[in-house]
């Protein structure tokens, strides 16, 4: 998998860098991705539209238990920095949480939590997925605004019949 993925990188990178990037864009790896910020964790569990109808959960993990397995990217990408990520490469490939380390988030609270995070803490898709891939993922959200702006700017340049001739507009 690493050999196949390596050809998509413009420069030489370590295996871990490839795994971290694959992990952050939704690919499958043997990394476990934690965040050190509880607000980011709440956002992640409430973010996906397709999961809004299902309960979610946050798993807490004591850092001292995973410290020997933490790996950090040499040159972290925007997402890793914004999400305050900690990558764990556990030899078992998973970590079983203790029962008291799991916080359940009911489905009916996900949308209000997401709105609260954006309004009062500035945590949103734009801040958490702050790269080209995030822009593309949410491009449709702003597409109508982009189209309206484009139409408005071209009409202002050319003039339109509703607001007068182009010559009249250019002399204002």
Describe, in short, the structure shown:
Helix content is 49%, strand content 10%.
Give me some keywords for this one.
172 residues, mainly alpha, 2 domains, three-stranded antiparallel sheet
Describe the structure.
The chain has about 170 residues and is mainly α. The chain folds into two domains: about 1-135, no CATH class; about 140-170, no CATH class. It has ten helices and five strands. The strands form two sheets. A three-stranded antiparallel sheet has the order 1-4-3. Strands 2-5 form a two-stranded antiparallel ribbon. The radius of gyration is 22 Å and the shape is flat. The N and C termini lie far apart (about 60 Å). The mean pLDDT is about 80.
Uncertain parts: none
Sheet with the most strands? Answer: 3 strands, antiparallel
- What percentage of the residues does DSSP assign to strands (E)? 5-15%
The succession of helices and strands, N to C, reads HHEHEHEHEEHHHHH
Number of helices: 10
Described by its quaternary structure, the protein is single chain
Shape: flat
| Helix and strand composition category | mainly alpha
If strands are numbered along the chain, what order do they take across the biggest sheet?
A: 1-4-3
Could you estimate the helical fraction of the residues in percent? 40-55%
Instruction: Give me the Rg, rounded.
Output: 22 Å
Tally of DSSP β-strands: 5
Q: What number of structural domains do the residues give?
A: 2
Average pLDDT score = 82
Our measurement of the CA-to-CA distance between the termini, rounded to an integer number of angstroms, reads: 62 Å
């Amino acid at each position: 998998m690493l050999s196949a993925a390596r050809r998509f990188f413009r420069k030489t990178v370590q295996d871990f860098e490839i795994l971290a990037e694959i992990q952050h864009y939704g690919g499958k790896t043997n990394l476990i991705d934690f965040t050190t910020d509880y607000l980011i964790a709440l956002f992640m569990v409430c973010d996906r539209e397709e999961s809004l109808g299902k309960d979610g959960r946050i798993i807490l993990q004591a850092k001292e238990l995973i410290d020997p397995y933490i790996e950090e990217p040499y040159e972290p990408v925007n997402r890793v920095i914004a999400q305050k990520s900690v990558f764990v490469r556990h030899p078992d490939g998973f970590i079983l949480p203790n029962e008291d380390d799991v916080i359940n988030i009911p489905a009916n609270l996900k949308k209000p939590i997401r709105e609260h995070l954006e309004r009062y803490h500035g945590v949103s898709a734009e801040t958490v997925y702050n790269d080209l891939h995030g822009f593309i993922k949410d491009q449709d959200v702003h597409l109508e605004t982009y189209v309206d702006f484009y139409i408005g700017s071209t009409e202002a340049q050319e003039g339109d019949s509703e607001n007068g001739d182009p010559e009249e507009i250019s002399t204002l």
